[in-house]
Structures are given as structure tokens and as C-alpha cells.
């Protein structure tokens, strides 16, 4: 037993260290400072909602790693955060067009006729007079379409005609113009048809082309073709794409007294910023500036961008530099302006940050009510495989619908002390290891001394 005791003194602390590490346990709602209720209809498997601004203000981590979704049984449910679409595409619209026949004589082409128009007070075209021949003597050789009041581009025309008979085929030319003098071809010899045979009907009454935006369109056909007697023309407008609207948060600038020309800003949250805009204190200001940012006050400033900032007034119209395209979630910002051209003068600038809330998508596992909990310095980030599942879901036939959830009023969850990092633990592991080494050295010394004493004893 005495032989093994010194070895046990060395090995026992190591065994304690190995046995000490507890398993990672799932967090509880009380581990977080805040919660936001989620209202769902209870009929879906997947739900989504934009994150409220309060989440960005009160999460500890700028990557939102201290956020979870809980069900009524206080179980964590899988979730993911998605960036919203950067642009919105509206559905195409149809609009009926005003059209006017263009009459010519037998030896006259459309490019040879003169056109006189009559408009009302609002600018709408009321009538068109070709004025090239006595009334009733010419033939219809084309149609003039007034599209000057339509702002979006036109990508197709749907025609309805009253030509008699069960069979009508032909071709059409489509041209565009802004002054009725110079015409540009859009489509040539586009087929049109209305055929009926043995109870079957074939119709081709739509002409598609690349989106065009002009004041006038002109339809024409070959001279030998039967005159097209139009009843109605409908234009299909090209879908309009617009940038997804931004939320805007502002911060007042504070001059850095020890560094003239520098101004600091605190947005109060780590927002997913995509645009930055400066409001300069005086009209007719133009300066070169360098922009910096950081996540925490204790961090070093990181250079983000350089830009020329200006705000000018001329003839009653104001001109400002375009918004800066910035992709960052830093809370603190600093702008340093060049002073050699006078800087900003008196006053301080304001900072406006444009951002889009991320979409929280979660699986409705368990029973409602569900809730978002956030704000914890002790919770580690979690990774769920829901994103790959959602990507597969979008490609599948009969994909699972992602329903909308409604967020409620933020409320305190656990203690606000969850937002502060816990005090540094005592380094007892280090102390134990060093203590073990010291004990091991002492034991080895004792063993060596005992061995030397035994060797010095005289043999009997």
C-alpha cells in the first residue's frame, strides 16, 4: 500500500479534473433577460416573423447567438435567421389602351402620312386625324396607340378583333416613337391567328417583346394582308422591381474633444445595417471623410469606408451625397472629416442607419404559446439544421407553407443580471495542477531521500 500512495497523490488530482467537466445542458427561459410572445394560428409546421428592434437592442452577442425560441413546455425548438429579400417584384398588370386607326390612300405608306392630334386638358389623346385624303376615301393601314400616360414598360399586347369568318391569319409589325416622326421597330412579322376546325379552336392574339417605354406605339401589317378590325387592345405591363424598404435609426453625433474633426455615434443596438446617411449641420458643406466602426466601446476602431459628404443648395433645390452602402452590425461609429477645407463648421452631424429586420423562421414543435427569449451572456450559440431543410422544402412539390407569426410586447424574463458577464471563476484548476506538481516534486524528493538513506545503511 505504501508503495502506491505517492503515485495516488499525483494521479488523484488529474482524475478529479477529468471527472469535473459537466455535460452541456439545454438553456432555460430563466437564463435570458427578455422574452417576446409569438402568436400563431396553430395550423402550421413552420412559422416566420421579422425580428423586432428590441431584440437587436438587448441581445448580448452581435450575431444573435443568445437568442432561442421556446414552446409552452419550456423546450427549445429549432429556428433559423434569414435575410429578407433585397428587392420586391410586383405582379404584372394589364391595362386597356386607347387606339386610333391610321388611314392611307392606295399608294401611300404609314411613314408618308401626317398626324394631327387633339388632347383634353389632362393630356389624354381624344382623336387622330391623318388629314391626307377626303374623309371615307382611305383604308385602315395601321393603328396608333397612345401609351404616354403609362410609366411602367410594356412587355406584350393582347388584341381582340372583329374580322368575320372562322379563319383569320396574318402578321403584325409593332413600332415605338416619342415624337410621331421617328419610329423604331420592336417586332416584325409577329404571327396572329384565329382558326376553327372540327370543333377545335386555335388563337394567337398576343404579341410579346422586350419591355419598351415610349409615348406611342404603332401597329401595321403587309399591304396585301386583310385589314385588321380591332375591338380592343390590352397592354401587359412589365413587373416592377423595387428595393425592399429600410427601417431607419438615428444617432446624434458627439464631438471628440481631444480630436478635432472627429464625431462619435451610438446607435444603441447592433442592427443589420445596409445603408448609412449623414445629416450635415450646415447647408453648402462639402468634406472628405473616413468612417470607422466597432462592436463594443472597448474595441479598437476599424476603418470601414471613405466618402465625400456634401449638402448643397442651388436655386431652391437641395443636393446630398448618395447613401453609403455598408454591411455591418456594429453599434458604435466614428466619422473623421478633413479640416483643411474648413470641416463641418459649427454644429454636429447626425447619423441615420438603414436596416432590414432578419426573418426568424422556426418549427412549431410542441404546444403554443411560443416565445422568443434573448439577452444572455452565459448562453452559447446553437446551430440547427433547419436552413437546409427549408431549402429542400422550397424545391419540393407541395412544399410546406411557411405561415406568419405575430410578435407581442417585449417583457422581462429572467434577471437582468443575465446581460452582464458572470464574475471570473477562481482558477482552482490551475491551482490544483500547480499543487499537484509541487506535491509530485516533494514526493519524488522524499522517495529519492529514502532511497539514499537505504543505500547508506551498512550491510549487516
Describe the structure concisely.
This protein has 460 residues and is mainly β.
Report Rg: 38 Å
Our count of domains comes out at 3
Number of helical segments with 4 or more residues:
4
Which CATH architecture of the largest domain would you pick?
A: Sandwich
Q: How many angstroms separate the termini?
A: 27 Å
Shape: elongated
What fold name stands as the CATH topology of the largest domain? Answer: Jelly Rolls
How does this model look, in words?
The chain has 4 helices and 33 strands. The mean pLDDT is 83. It folds into 3 domains: 32-84 and 358-419, no CATH class; 94-241, Sandwich (Jelly Rolls); 247-355, Galactose-binding domain-like (Jelly Rolls, Sandwich), CATH 2.60.120.260. A 6-stranded antiparallel β-sheet has the order 7-10-16-12-13-14, with no helix packed on it. Helix 1 runs antiparallel to helix 4 (428-456). With 460 residues, it is mainly beta. The longest helix has 29 residues, at 428-456.
